[in-house]
Amino acid sequence: MDMQRQPSGCACCGWSRRRFLAAGCGTCLGAAGILAAPRLTRAAQSGKMRIRIVYALHAPVQPGPDWPNVGFDFNPVMQRITSTLTSRCPDLQFVASMANGPEQAQKILDDDKGAIDGYIVCQLNCWNRVVQTMATSGKPTLYVDFQYAGSGGFLVYTAAFLRSNTPNVGFVASSRMEDLIEAVKCFGIVGKGSSPAEFVAATARVRSSRMPKAGDLACKPDSFQTLSPAECIAAMKASKILAVRDQESGSADPVSGIPLERVSFAEVNEAWKAADKDESRAVADRWRRGATDVIDVSRETLETSAAMYLGMKSVLKKHGANAITINCLGGFYGGHIHAYPCLGFHELNNEGLIGACECDVRSTATMVMLTALTQGRPGYISDPVIDTAKRQIIYAHCVASNRAFGPKGQTNPFAIMTHSEDRQGASVRSILPLGYMTTTVEMEQGRKEILFHQGKAVDNDPDDRACRTKLAVEPVGDIEKLFTQWDQWGWHRVTCYGDLKEPVFALAEAMGYKVLEEA
What we know:
By secondary structure, the protein is an alpha/beta fold. The protein folds into two domains: 16-210, Rossmann fold (3-Layer(aba) Sandwich), CATH 3.40.50.2300; 229-517, no CATH class. 37% of the residues lie in helices and 23% in strands. The protein is built from 18 helices and 20 strands. It has helices at 16-19, 26-46, 75-88, 102-112, 131-135, 151-163, 177-184, 187-191, 196-210, 229-237, 265-274, 277-290, 299-319, 328-333, 342-350, 361-373, 486-489, 501-511; strands spanning 49-56, 92-99, 118-123, 141-145, 169-172, 241-244, 250-255, 258-262, 293-294, 323-326, 354-357, 380-387, 392-397, 414-419, 424-430, 437-444, 449-460, 469-475, 493-497, 514-517. Helix 10 crosses helix 18, helix 11 crosses helix 13 and helix 13 (299-319) crosses helix 15.
């Protein structure tokens, strides 16, 4: 729910990188409780249904790096939601609170003592577990995504509610305030005797009726050759992934047939320090010339990023590998590495190699598979967001290639910006090509499954919140079905340009994997 557009100045699947922020909203909750008490009294006197809005977030002003970004002021967002619902839904009485996790959510529930008729939970940061507690009330509960802020948790938690058939939780995943207003009005049917389950069904009808009809999914021509399944499997076995998670190093079990080796932060950091300074300056010059803009990134940061790229290439060469994935935030915040690898990943992916975020080995293996299958096209790892107002899924991340059609294909514009969540380092906003079919997958060896959906690239969203690159596609198939798998697969997905349905299905059959179509 895009309640507020912040003026211009990444989040990723890793749960631990957000959990360290999960404490710190107690004082604001106390203030909310003081304000709530007299409003509850007025509500009781009015005879209106009493609905509590619970904002799930770390703190009113974000204290650290996370979606949407450090320093983000949620106060105007909360004020706008509360005041808009109060004015547009006059038959309901609203009272607002904040909670950063289960303990504070339970205190709200206990203090309500049955004096509330329903709950609205707005997920403002990703992983604060608040809605689960409010759902135990059995009261009709509307779960709302503040997009590019709470979307990771919203998708994962919503999928869990859908999987368990939680009977009292409906949801809103829209950038349009009117969609939230119409869903909130569904509380009125409960006041007339309908059950929480009927409330949930009503919110689903609102969501469906307000969603645009499917657009023209005809795509631009995109001719390319893929490897046969046997050739692709051979190419995957001939590849090697380097996983840089901590200070440990050594051999590891293959993933989906791809050899895997662990490499320490120290080895990468030493390679970064040893990178040739003249060559680093030349790479920085090339990036600066190639970018449409360089925003809030110093020359020194460009050069340290270039040195990280050269260091990663030397480590890849040393180990005979073509893919590297690094626990980037853990390494950077822990002082184990001293430059973000984002620009280096961007360059590696442009060259037909693989650079992947957050030491996500499964997504890295998926990228290796896609690059092999397409003979060079890069995979784009992302944190998706679903917007029913536009019938879109948006793939957001701070790393992306600008050669979506492979090392010899056409380039697209890109800007160099800070990493979004902490406004540090250097990352990429790639303005990816539109009008083409894309294929999005995740490959899981434990279940021997490949998760699959497709969509037509229709937009690049410039919103300043969350990760820098935001490719929007209109999915092929049922967008409602796209809400169902996040609790089983996590947040990351990997997108590649091209209609890869037939080759992916053929490869899955050859590998003994099942394809699960999530749309």
